[in-house]
Design a protein that fits this description.
Layout (H helix, E strand, L loop, with lengths): L4 H22 L5 H6 L6 H12 L2 H14 L10 H10 L1 H8 L6 H6 L2 H34 L3 H48 L6 H11 L18 H18 L1 H8 L4 H33 L10 H10 L3 H25 L2 H27 L11 H9 L5 H32 L8 H23 L8 H25 L5 H23 L8 H22 L8
Length: about 550
């Protein structure tokens, strides 16, 4: 079923507004400070919402919901120490960058160390962000391709083109202005989706009953205290890995630092991070819970074993026994739903056990189907990314709601894409081309617009290779785990080790990235423990700080170091 006229009107109106807003903001850009830092006059609430919008990409809207459907709420533990990271940064990095009045986070590193340190860290950021931006572009392209009937490639090109257009025209003013409005659209869309799922649950189940069923099925996990290093999401992985990645992301990543560089006062800059400290964990838990509710809802209104319709059709037609397992899967869902209702009505422990056993049967059949598809080299692409699109396509009423939800996904996507493009272009102009604000203002604006186009083209090209990648929310974070710990290590050495010098720090950066990547490769080769991606950030920061600390005392400081 395609999009209705109402849906197209909603989507077209949203895109027209976004581009128009970018054009309006372009009129106020006269200097490099206007274009790159919004004249350093952004209030705390706008910065805070822009920071949240940058994080809450379509990867969050689509991928995190799918994560909740398949795995439950355990992923929320990743965010538990974000508030602590925000408080630490409010008393360290934020006042530091406020005093320095730099245009990029890496500009300071040349003042502290030397040119090569600035170049190496800025290039690390460029590589990291180009790779992750491909994943951020892919998520809405999956959804749009599913609904429009167009190819995944064409949808990547459309999304990239719109983001490049208004970002290059309006600079950071356009990015923050549209981010605030896009955050509102996304929250409304998620709220509508949440209401529809709850409303379609049986009357004797409702929201409270659905949470009870999900908890019994093992889908509600708020704290895993296991010390097993192979478990992906635990309190300890959040403390030792999540805290590191949030300190690195908000303290050294230009896409975030650029927000509070644009603030009008130190108080506003701190307020932006504190808003995230308060709102981020409940926001992520709500999205994961939406995915969990999808799972409970599917027990009463069975969903396909394979959400990707083309894969499902091929599997049932080409793989012997797959159609039979599919039929058993749908029957098992209905049986689990019925036993769940029985337990909610009786409260008897034996009825609860029967429900849990039926849910395990559903999970087992899904695994059997996946094994058959894997043996035939026909595994479902990006399974977690198709949960929301399938629900929207097959279960929503057709009077503009699909258009509203697609606008929400587009808002989530654009709010991240524009921020990343703007940060990439800023680093390219200031740190790589080394243009001087106040001297080369006109050249900076022209160069940043050209670089926005170039980085956008690179991201689009990379996104086209991600059609078959797994859960995008995990993919994007895994990419970051290779680099973020080492970037944080560089800044820690710059701030707290007076004897650190450029040569030692740069070698430490390279070793840290290598150690993070190697920890994954060694585990995959069977010679080590498969560490969750969260711990790779800790490996990176420890290796960078350790090597940088030692070499800065063993090797003489280069003459250019300060």
């Amino acid at each position: 079923m395609g999009l209705s006229t109402y849906d197209w009107v909603v989507i077209a109106a949203f895109l027209a507004f976004v581009i128009g807003d970018g054009l309006r903001k372009a009129r106020g850009n006269r200097t490099a400070e206007d274009y790159l830092l919004a004249s350093r006059g952004v209030p705390w609430w706008a910065m805070g919402l822009s920071i949240m919008a940058t994080q809450a990409s379509a990867v969050t809207f689509v991928g995190t919901t799918g994560q909740g459907y398949y795995s439950g709420t355990g992923f929320v533990q990743f965010y538990y120490f974000l508030p602590l990271a925000m408080l630490v940064l409010c008393v360290t990095a934020v006042p530091f960058f406020h005093r320095e009045r730099v245009f990029t986070a890496y500009e300071y590193l040349e003042r502290r160390f030397d040119r090569k340190t600035r170049a190496c860290t800025s290039m690390t950021f460029l590589v990291l962000r180009c790779l992750s931006l491909g994943g951020i572009l892919s998520a809405p392209a999956f959804v749009l391709a599913e609904f429009s009937g167009q190819s995944f490639l064409s949808m990547v090109l459309v999304m990239g083109g719109v983001a490049i257009a208004y970002t290059s025209l309006g600079g950071l003013k356009a990015v923050i202005s549209t981010d605030v409005k896009q955050m509102g659209v996304m929250v409304v869309a998620l709220g509508v989706l949440f209401f529809i799922v709850v409303d379609e649950l049986p009357d004797d189940v409702g929201l409270a009953g659905a949470v009870r069923l999900a908890d019994a099925a093992g889908r509600i996990e708020l704290a895993n205290w296991s010390f097993d290093p192979t478990e992906r999401y635990t309190i300890w992985s959040a403390l030792l890995g999540g805290l590191v990645i949030f300190l690195a992301y908000f303290g050294t990543d230009q896409s975030q630092v650029q927000r509070y560089l644009a603030g009008r006062s130190l108080r506003d800059k701190r307020g932006a991070l504190l808003l995230n400290a308060v709102a981020k964990v409940p926001f992520q838990l709500g999205i994961l819970l939406l995915g969990v509710l999808f799972f409970v809802w599917s027990l009463f209104m069975p969903v396909p074993m394979v959400f990707h319709s083309e894969t499902a059709a091929r599997a049932n037609g080409e793989i012997e026994g797959h159609a039979a397992i599919t039929a058993q899967f749908e029957t098992a869902q209905r049986r689990a739903g019925a036993s769940g209702q029985t337990w909610l009505a009786s409260g008897d422990e034996s009825d609860r056990d029967a429900f849990v056993a039926d849910v395990r049967r559903v999970t087992s059949l899904r695994g059997e189907g996946k094994s058959l598809r894997g043996a035939a080299e026909l595994s479902e692409p990006s399974a977690k990314n198709y949960v929301v699109p399938w629900f929207m396509k097959h279960r929503l009423p057709r009077w503009g709601l699909v258009g509203l939800l697609l606008a929400g996904i587009l808002a989530a996507a654009l709010s991240s894409i524009d921020s990343e493009l703007n940060a990439l272009a800023t680093v390219g102009a200031i740190d790589i081309l080394r243009l001087k604000p106040g001297v080369d203002d006109a050249r900076i604006i022209r160069a940043t617009r050209v670089l926005t186009l170039l980085f956008g083209a690179l991201a689009v090209g990379f996104a086209t290779t991600l059609e078959g990648v797994g859960a995008l929310i995990e993919y994007v974070n895994m990419i970051g785990s290779w680099f973020y710990g080492s970037l944080l290590g560089v800044f820690l050495l710059a701030w707290w080790d007076r004897r650190a010098h450029g040569t030692g720090v740069v070698v430490g950066l390279v070793v840290g990235i290598g150690a993070a990547v190697a920890s994954e490769q060694v585990a995959e080769s069977g010679f080590g423990v498969a560490l969750p991606w969260l711990f790779k950030n800790t490996v990176g920061v420890v290796a960078t700080c350790g090597v940088g600390f030692i070499l800065s005392r063993v090797l003489p400081a280069p003459p250019s170091d300060q």
